[in-house]
Write a structure and sequence with these properties.
The structure is a homodimer. With about 110 residues, chain A is α+β, with helices and mostly antiparallel strands. The first copy, chain A, is built from 5 helices and 5 strands. In chain A, a hairpin with a 2-residue loop joins β3 and β4. At the A-B interface, α1 and α5 of A face α1 and α5 of B. Chain A binds a DNA duplex (30 and 30 nucleotides) through α3.
DNA sequence: TCCTTTGTTCGATGTTCGTAGAACGTCGAA
DNA sequence: TTCGACGTTCTACGAACATCGAACAAAGGA
């Protein structure tokens, strides 16, 4: 569980962000995190295997959408809303709005 | 060159749109079309083979981002901005704005 | 009718992706 | 030190993707 790398704000690319958001599960994860609160990894529930969830969270992290913090043996994930809003104004809001209206990624939720 | 199918507005999905926009060439095509003017197929210039360009235009069409009209032996492509703005308000504007700032898909242009 | 133009489709190739299970590394607790 | 909990990484696999060149189909023009 070595420290994961996060892209700097100016390293975040539009294409990578849109690619990361082109999967229902990842959109669901972003939706869950969209209230700005940090979530524990184990708190996240998605209809995929643990390794697959880890993969999706990695894609989001690599694209610059989320930040993962490690505390002891467990991790906490949060949306990088501030960075994204500076980088791509209005994009996240539009995606979240659309995802809400269409109920995209509704099978992703949290225990907290 | 048979008539291509276009999804109805309510058949357009967020994930498909974001997936279609997760490629620099397709973002470039959308940017070229973003002034609302219709363009001739042969007018579009991208650094890929003809068949590959056809493929990308098909992805955009299938996702509901563009509409293709046929006139005799040639085709004309336009952005479905109205449909998209109704379906996903603010999304296209945010993407175009971000693409402009980062100069995404700049190697796609037009002869017209 | 034959040829040219225009864009699509096909076949092939190499890459990336989503998925899962198994093995692993790390940390805290017993 | 041994154990259990927590995520990551490895490995594998089928599906989807980006790409190209060649073959093709449709519509006009010579």
């Amino acid at each position: 569980m070595k420290q994961a790398r996060h892209p700097e704000p100016d390293e975040i690319t539009l294409v990578a962000v849109l690619g990361a958001l082109s999967d229902p599960i990842r959109v669901g994860l972003v939706r869950v995190l969209s209230d700005g609160r940090e979530r524990g990894w184990g708190e996240l529930r998605a209809p995929v295997a643990k390794s697959t969830l880890s993969h999706h969270l990695r894609v989001l992290r690599d694209a610059g959408l989320t930040r993962t913090r490690q505390e002891g043996t467990r991790c906490f994930v949060e949306l990088r809303r501030g960075d994204l809003d500076v980088r791509f104004p209005g994009l996240l809001a539009a995606v979240l709005d659309a995802a809400h209206n269409d109920d995209v990624g509704a099978h992703v939720h949290t225990d907290g």
